[in-house]
Amino acid sequence: MRICLIASSRHPVRQPFAGGLEAMTHTLARGLAARGHEVALFAAPGSDPDLPVEHLAHRPFAPSEISLGDVNAPSRAWMADHHAYLSLMMQLARDGARRFDVVHNNSLHHLPVAMASMVPVPVLTSLHTPPLPWLESAVALDPDGSRFTAVSRVMARAWAHVVTSRPVLNGIDVRAWTPGEGGGPAVWFGRMVPEKAPHDAIDACRLAGVPLVLAGPVSDPGYYAAEVAPRLGPYAVHVGHLDHAALDRLLGRASVAVATPAWDEPYGLVGPEAMACGTPLAAYARGALPELVDDEVGALAEPGDVASLAEAVLVAATRDRAATRRHAELDCSLDRMLDEYEECYAELLEGDRVA
């Protein structure tokens, strides 16, 4: 098939990834191309040149000082996003049928949904986030312009008041993650932001008597300075934002991975990536994590309860690493995700509903 993938205009799709959305988009583009599909990925400048990338907003737009002087003028960043997606959707409306068989929207912007009916080929939108007001508005105005999947069952339920969506859980290339022997410190990895609550991981591991290594970008310097940095010391160290190879090595040595979402995270690649290294997961039972983790491969804790999480860290570390790796291979794999998306594309081309 000839597939158009729409990504974020804010962050390049490249390592080290800004977040799970960029990592998933990178994996999806590579996987579809490896299966012989003709893929065009519309993504932010600076994305991985090894991908079939076409830059969003290839004709940059700078609003005039007069227009920005309006009391209700949006920010330059908002205008850049708006221009990027408006430009792309107008381009697809003009010549989408000449280039593509299907469009798969993985952005969080409202315009690919609002303008889907203008595109002469089927559009599939994956819901990567809980409902956002501008996305709800776009769906409400044209609920049949796009078909919808959700990256977890919890996201499908979150959107059920607006639209019906088919759960297609994210997948990872398990072959890119190396099973390790474990036995080392616990690991927490992700963006250093309040909604991911790495400070809870530090407190829980200290309570459990387990040393912790944290990895990830400092996306919220104020939060990091107030809540994370004061907790660092001999038993909790932050090693920065790691590329894939370094993170793979770190996870392979870890005795347990820790996930501490302070919100209902739509999916979370932390669990599958850790489990692909054979590393069991101790996590708050929030968002999609209960869909990914069972008693064979980890342990779940009461959300926000540090003492419960400390107990989960100790329990998860006893899980069998080979069984944990098998779980990732069977339930969290790229091949499973690609199979399901190919099925969605085929149904769209046949004129059937995906959900």
UniProtKB/TrEMBL annotation:
Residues 19-173 form the Glycosyltransferase subfamily 4-like N-terminal domain. Residues 189-314 form the Glycosyl transferase family domain. It holds the Pfam family Glyco_transf_4. InterPro entries: Glyco_trans_1, Glyco_trans_4-like_N. Keywords: Glycosyltransferase, Transferase. GO terms for molecular function: glycosyltransferase activity. The keyword Transferase applies. This is Glycosyltransferase involved in cell wall biosynthesis. It comes from Nocardioides panaciterrulae.
